[in-house]
Amino acid sequence: MRRRCSNGRRAAILVATLVATLAAGLVRLPAQRPESWPLVGALPFTNSVVGDERVALNPLTSGIPELVLIELSRNPAIRTVEPQRLRRALAAQKLDAQGRLDDEAASHVGRIVGAQWVIRGTFTGDGHGTIRITAYMVDVATGQLEHTASAEGRQANLAALIGQLSEHLAHDMHLADLSREGRRAREVTQKASYTTTLMFARAIEARDAGRVQQAISMLKQLLADEPEYEPAQNELTRLHSDRGR
Fold it and tell me: Do the Cβ atoms of 164 and 151 come closer than 8 Å?
């Protein structure tokens, strides 16, 4: 009889524990909903290149933040601001997308689009094939600079440098490691040639300037040469979808 009571007591404890565990899980569910994930935006980067390369590298003003957001968005725990929303906010505030935007301006734009963090940045070169990219992550709530990340190397390794920068920011944001599939996709993108990366940046520059058909043509040309380049695949699909609405 005592053994039966003991067994019954253990079963009751087990059921109570299971119920408590399930209840705790239900309590945590709202915090895991997509709309509660942090929203991150990226402003155009400032072209600080001096000399003959300045004009040739100007597409990176739009291309670098685009690629940084693509890399960050591989993590399912964050959301990113659509570039169109960010451009509208910049235009509404009469802020020059090609100019140097400080932390206060970044925070102001972030509040307009409802972001928790806004990334701004700059890039420069030494005129001998080396490029340095620096990104600043601003906490929109406080208007203060939260994190800084930089990457420097040969322009030929531009895609890898942007990837390194993105990984530093993800680490500073305490984002979880990517899945195996996410890591594989990231590695493929970071192995892209300088020509591919710059052509993608030119397409994004055309898109941001309102030359959508030109952007579509450039992306198609890029994919004819590099059919596996994921950023171009996704952007071309998105542009076709937007035009079909």
Answer: yes
**Residue 23: C-alpha distances to residues 12, 18, 19, 30, 35 (Å):** 16, 9, 6, 13, 22
Sign of CA dihedral 133, 117, 219, 89: negative
User: Contact at 8 Å (CB) between 38 and 107?
Assistant: no
Domain 32-243: state its class: alpha beta
Which of 219, 239, 240, 241 is CA-nearest to residue 230?
Answer: 219
Query: Taking a C-beta distance cutoff of 8 angstroms, is the pair 165, 136 a contact?
Result: no
- The mean pLDDT value of the chain amounts to 84
Share of the chain above pLDDT 90, in %: 57
* Helix (H) / strand (E) containing 148: strand 144-154
Q: What DSSP character marks residue 78?
A: -
In a 13 Å sphere around the CA of 42, the CA atoms on its Cβ side amount to 25
The C-alpha atoms of residue 101 and residue 76 are separated, in whole angstroms, by: 28
Residue 10 binned pLDDT confidence (cut-offs 50, 70, 90): low
pLDDT at 99: 61
Closest Cα partner for 93 from 107, 82, 83, 79? 107
Q: Which residue has the tokens 């253990």?
A: 10
> Strand, coil or helix: what is 146?
strand
Domain assignments of the chain as residue spans, ordered by start: 32-243
Give CA 198 to chain center in angstroms: 17
d(CA 116, CA 156): 33
Question: Running DSSP on this structure, what letter comes out for residue 42?
Answer: E
Contact between 204 and 236 under an 8 Å Cβ cutoff? The reply is no
Whether 78 and 166 have beta carbons less than 8 Å apart is answered as: no
